[in-house]
Amino acid sequence: MALADEQQNWPDSQPPEMEAADSPTDVELDGEEVSGAEPEPAAVKKASRNAYYKMRRFATSPRITQFPHIAKIWRAGSEDQKKDLLSQWVTTNGNASSIEATLNLRSSMSHKLDEVEELLTIKQMKQRDVSQRLSSCWFVSIVCIMRLPPRQKIDATVASQPGVPDPACPASKDDVRYWITMSVKRAKAQSTELESTISGRVDPQAAFQAMNGSGLLSALGATRIASSSGPSVADMIPGGAMAMQQFAASVSPAASLPEPPATQGLLPDVSTPAPKAKPVPKKKAKAQPGDKAELGPMGLRVEGLTLAKRMDKLRQIATWQKMEQWNDGIQGVADEVAAVRVKKAQVKATMQELKKPLPEKRACAQFDMFCTARALRQSALKEARAHQKLRAADLTFDALVTYCTLPVQDEQGMQVETQWPFLLPHTMAGALVRHGYRDVLGTCSAEYWQMQAAHGITAPGPDSIPLLLFGDEAEWNSCTYMALHWMADCADVRVQQDSRMSRYLICVIPSHVHCHEEDSNINYTLQAALQHIAQSFDCLRAECSVRAQLAGIKGDWKFLCQALNSCRTYNHNSCCLWCDATRDGAFPYTDVAETASWRSTLYLSDPWVTPPALATLGGISSILRIVHIDLMHAIHLGVGRDLVGSVLYLLVHARRGGAFRGSNIKKRFRHATTLFLSSPHSKGFPKHFLMHKDWVGMRSKKQYVECHSKAAQTGSLIQWLADFLGECTDEVAPRPLKACVWCLNAAMTVLFKARAAGQHTLTDAQARQAHEFGYTFLKLYLQLHASYRGKLTYKVFNPRPKYHLLCHLFDDLVQNRRNPARSVNFMDEDSLRKTGHIIKKCHAKTAALTVLQRYLVGLKPKMQEAFEITKNKAWRHEPPSKLEPS
């Protein structure tokens, strides 16, 4: 109820808005005109509402009792007074003390007595009950105080003046009228004049001097308020001269001027006196009745109440429009001041450091290095002791950490050799067998090794376990690490659905310590690490407890090129590891015909100059034959992105009669997002997912359109587009476009269904079906690229080098029927992500060892869970991971 009562005092039950002017006419001030005042923007009205709500909270708080004048205007003030109070609240930035001092000064100077006389006859005086008899007293109803004798007031009034006869009957004495004082009124006419004067562009010192003296008072026509011996203006204010000084200091130039004073440098020079005000030209317009034009000592033109109103209007227009700019400027100055303080502290510390003698500097530096090394050594000792205690309590996986020599780059950029921790495959596999987790690695049939014989792989025995090696880079704690893992290719499908059960960490190496040779693309640090890992795989071939053979190498393109010392990369003319396909017309990689020239060069030349460390692996005829092409990097993060982005661009590009509704591209993208999120293929997508121009890659006309989605999201989008385009007409979506998307979705469906069924190899029918769908997609994709080339604003259907990798992938389906979906890198990337969670909790200096120790602590419960899964044959089938396409 209190809030409702307060809002009723304001017009229309809303906070007062600062109006630009009462009418569309121009506003004049001292001979200058401000014409064409524009209406206030929404930001100004919002700022006014916010200021009103802040002032209302202040007026309803217990603090309002300290400011009686503000409380009085808030409770019982008029509409204009409340508007004026709100304006002062905004311009002083909520400084209640400044507002109270201003109101207090007004109330002490604004009272003025006005006599009200009437022209009455003697009969009318008697009817108005004029006193017939006065006692001996002081008559205080008029300004001129006098002592009256004890007689009738009517007789005194008639005797003191001749009277005014009636024009219609001048001879009638009863109709003669006399002037008589009937009442006295007190008006507050001084407050507005005072406000208009103190709102000038003056500094606080000049304002105080003018107000404490007689200059301002003479300009206002109030030179003397009391007698000559009475108190001064400063004495009339509660608090004396100190209150006057506070009031003068609270007068802010920025509160009433259309432009803030310009500052030189970072902060204004307080020692420089304020500039003098320019003389104001005389007003050319006609003088209004009642105005008193007078020039004060500070060069400010004062014209009474009319000038005050105009000043208030102009101040409202200028102040509210410039308020946000002033706030930004103040914040910028504050930031610069903070920066200067920081620089000052740094300079002071540097000067103190320079004053120290040279031996003291060296001692401080050596002490800092000693403290850092001691802290790291103590941290490493604590980590090692904790790991030993967990190992003694049988709470960690018992595997031996081996130290191998690696060439690394130190902080000075020099190549040095250091001992690096490894969990080598043969030690980890031996620990798994020793703990009774042999079944977790799985078993394979003789048919599997017959299939691998086509790749030149010779197994050490029929019960050998096929292993895969994976490597990739990721960034954690502002540092890029390369992590190497190994896994069993024939492990149970239920075990492979959890990356912590099926992926085993070998080592993590920061990328900034790698030693490179840019000319030959050789990573000496990685090659030394792979040399130790290759020797470990060779030990597994001769191991008695468990026999294993490396059957595949997988990872992203960067890791494969570095692991093989390949000179053929995407940036060079030769862009394929397995053949001599090129970007130019010699062996064009976009040729998908059976008679393509690059097919005759398959496995004939090596992509390296210096043989890699993995080339020394035993049981492998050619290392290139066991390099796996990853579906995730080739399709979900490669050609699939180009396909989704190009199709969406073509569907959204149609203005009329298109697949999506909307008058512009933004609205059509929103309609496409709504249709996708309502489909069953949007499982796993966030609710705030939105398609837009930047997401599709519509940024530069020189680049191809590409969908910037994650790997799993690309698979879901391809499935949705295959279903959506099937319902569209040929006018909306051409048949080649429909067939291209449908063929890629059909080929991926065959491969991932076989993987979900646990098939290590494809059947002849599945291999031929996936091969036909895949090559049909490649031909249609190239056909669409040629048909839309140079006809659209943006480029579509990018035939990147990953397009050529799909030719080798689909050819391999028919040759050996190996399912590439079995070795897809979804779970490997998930294992890399979980390794990063451990790295984030370790110190960068000791992360290489600490990561392995913490990994072993969390591995034991996972191995026990994996053992229970493989032991229980009736264990229920878990749904696929969110990282894999549905």
UniProtKB/TrEMBL annotation:
Residues 25-35 have a biased composition (Acidic residues). Residues 1-12 have a biased composition (Polar residues). It comes from the Eukaryota. Residues 1-46, 254-297 are annotated as: Disordered. This is Uncharacterized protein. It comes from Effrenium voratum.
